[in-house]
Predict the 3D structure of the following.
Amino acid sequence: MRVEYARRQNWLAAGFVGLMLLSGMAQADAALDWLNRAAAAARLQNYSGVYVYHHGEHVEVLRVLHRTDATGELEKVEVLDGAPRKFLRINNDVYCHLPDGKNVRLERNVLRRFFPALLPEQPASLLEFYGAKLGGVERVAGRPCQVVTLGARDGYRYSYQMWLDRQTGLPLKSRVVNSNGGVVSMFVFSEIQIGQAPDARLFHNDLAGKLIHKASLDVPPDEAWDVTPPPGFERVQEAVRMLPGKPAPVTHLVLSDGLSVLSVFIESVDSNMQMRPGLSAEGVIGIYAREVDDHTVTTLGEVPNMALIETGNSVKRK
């Protein structure tokens, strides 16, 4: 009797574990369906609205217009407080109209998009390094939203919480959360209109009399350096840039896992500038710097310090 009872208990336990695994898989599938909807909505929906960006102690208010038509994607983002800045994206080219009204910075073939387009086109690629699960339904900007959490599986990235419009899937709120549950940064719409295309005339790119500066030079990046990114991160962009205050071009590498992003800058040591080695921060952006073979290597991004340090320490000459 005892043996039979033990067998039944084992079968029940095994069945319970199986049901839990199936339930977890079903929830992950449901979360992925929402993430797929969100990624498509940010690219394909027409929308306009005002959102707030909280990062550290700083708060910015921005207006976004997004239009999809036969020419592709048009997007305009205007900063509504502080120094006037305007970004106009025409497909993968971004024009940044600077506050002086005379200069425009042009960035070509940009992969990284503005909020609410935070997800890659294929969100399933994230699930190796983030666990996806559904939360409840909450209102944002007067619209019911499905909450989806992408929990980091390791210490190289933060977790993300997203509030997705129940009707269209468009992300209306997003939070980056550290391992202690603290909010690192947040985007949230205060008002949003979805479905009506903003007038095409609102995207007119007035370049008359303005000086256009290419953000990256038309030369290949220095291939003399090896960089080992954190697990899941891949090199998604590389360029040689002229940066403000820098006397010589700087090699810039962008590494991403499809959601989190960090940058690596490699430049010759400038004897007129004092480098501050080690960890520091600029608001919520972590910074790590070290000197390698008469070059300064700087890694920065909205990622945990471990990702910055290990990436920076991996940089070496080939």
Observations:
- The CA atoms of residues 63 and 243 lie 27 Å apart.
